[in-house]
């Protein structure tokens, strides 16, 4: 095992020779610097594991030397040696960056205490360096994982965009209105899922989606699509800045797509009107999403369409442990979804 190299800084040459001799017997390699300037020169040359410095250094104090060291960046740990009986000196040295302090005495216990403090300072510095290296490795691994996840989200979003384009091409060659509408709804569901992955890789977020931004983009696309199909409702949104996990956001996006699509298709059969999407925090840890209209309502009426949208809403709500309640308004309908937010 290599010997510990010590730079001993003290203007007392006689004591320094004694320290060199006695620490040398204990396995240390000690070099003496009699002034702060000489010490700084030797530290620049490097090769030391630890330094020990006296409080009184002739032209200054060890505290002043520690302050100069602090401006030079990382260096070997320091053990402060002081003959002062005032604890304030030792406390000041520790605050200035010293790893430990040893009271200077004329007895043999001084060398033993100094040797122990030097060993502990080196060990502590080694542990700190190993900890910093391990943390750097963890950060690098995390960055690689985030980069990989962003690439995965990018590829998934691109793949889903391609699927959506194929569905659109298929819809364009159909003449049956029912089939075209069914493919348009499928395309909207695909967009709801793809938008989550797109937001993740463009925002740099990992695992958390900002719902106001995501739902805002989803509703803008959905409104344009529905108007392109001849539905004239006006889409209004008021979205609180809440966040949700990836899987829950996908389910929520599909639910919103189904509810808004139904409102566009059935709320205003012979006129235009508003469809409102509201998102707010209901209580700590829970949120409310409301989709409402001022249309004809559905109280006591048979559900229109195939009922697939209703089944999708129920399945998605179960998967995120959400409650869905339909309210009859006068006029219109409100659907309220209560779901948990991440803690």
UniProtKB/TrEMBL annotation:
<keyword id="KW-0597">Phosphoprotein</keyword>
<keyword id="KW-0547">Nucleotide-binding</keyword>
<dbReference type="InterPro" id="IPR036890">
    <property type="entry name" value="HATPase_C_sf"/>
</dbReference>
<dbReference type="GO" id="GO:0000160">
    <property type="term" value="P:phosphorelay signal transduction system"/>
</dbReference>
<dbReference type="GO" id="GO:0005524">
    <property type="term" value="F:ATP binding"/>
</dbReference>
<protein>
    <recommendedName>
        <fullName>histidine kinase</fullName>
        <ecNumber>2.7.13.3</ecNumber>
    </recommendedName>
</protein>
<dbReference type="InterPro" id="IPR001789">
    <property type="entry name" value="Sig_transdc_resp-reg_receiver"/>
</dbReference>
<dbReference type="Pfam" id="PF00072">
    <property type="entry name" value="Response_reg"/>
</dbReference>
<keyword id="KW-0808">Transferase</keyword>
<keyword id="KW-0418">Kinase</keyword>
<keyword id="KW-0067">ATP-binding</keyword>
<dbReference type="Pfam" id="PF02518">
    <property type="entry name" value="HATPase_c"/>
</dbReference>
<dbReference type="Pfam" id="PF07568">
    <property type="entry name" value="HisKA_2"/>
</dbReference>
<dbReference type="InterPro" id="IPR003594">
    <property type="entry name" value="HATPase_dom"/>
</dbReference>
<dbReference type="InterPro" id="IPR011006">
    <property type="entry name" value="CheY-like_superfamily"/>
</dbReference>
<feature type="domain" description="Response regulatory">
    <location>
        <begin position="5"/>
        <end position="119"/>
    </location>
</feature>
<dbReference type="GO" id="GO:0004673">
    <property type="term" value="F:protein histidine kinase activity"/>
</dbReference>
<dbReference type="InterPro" id="IPR011495">
    <property type="entry name" value="Sig_transdc_His_kin_sub2_dim/P"/>
</dbReference>
